[in-house]
Amino acid sequence: MLIKIIVVVLLIYMIVNLFLAMRVMMKNDTAGKPMSKYIGRRVLTSVCIVLLILLAIATGLIHPNPRPY
To answer: Transmembrane stretches, by residue range (predicted)?
Structure first.
């Protein structure tokens, strides 16, 4: 259950960074923080989520569905 909560929190963090990058893009302000900072955080969060899921499957904390239907 803890793994699922962590994944949901990381997904919310990823969506927040997406909207922060959009705000920077729409503002078009060169003096502020660069948009690549927020996009980089999104990519890093995605990598963390994938690694967390793979680690949880490898240790047996979560079980993948054996049949897709």
So the answer is: 6-22, 43-63
Domains held by the chain: number: 1
- What is the reported pTM? 0.79
- Predicted confidence (pLDDT) per residue in 11-43, tens digit: 999 999 999 888 888 887 666 678 888 889 999
Quick one: tokens of 36? 């690549």
Residue 56 CB contacts under 8 Å (≥ 6 apart), including other chains: 3, 62
Note whether residue 34 is domain-resident. Answer: yes
Cα-based angle 11, 66, 63 (whole degrees, multiple of 5): 50
Q: Which two tokens stand for residue 37?
A: 């900072």
Q: Which two tokens stand for residue 55?
A: 């680690």
Range of the domain at 27: 2-59
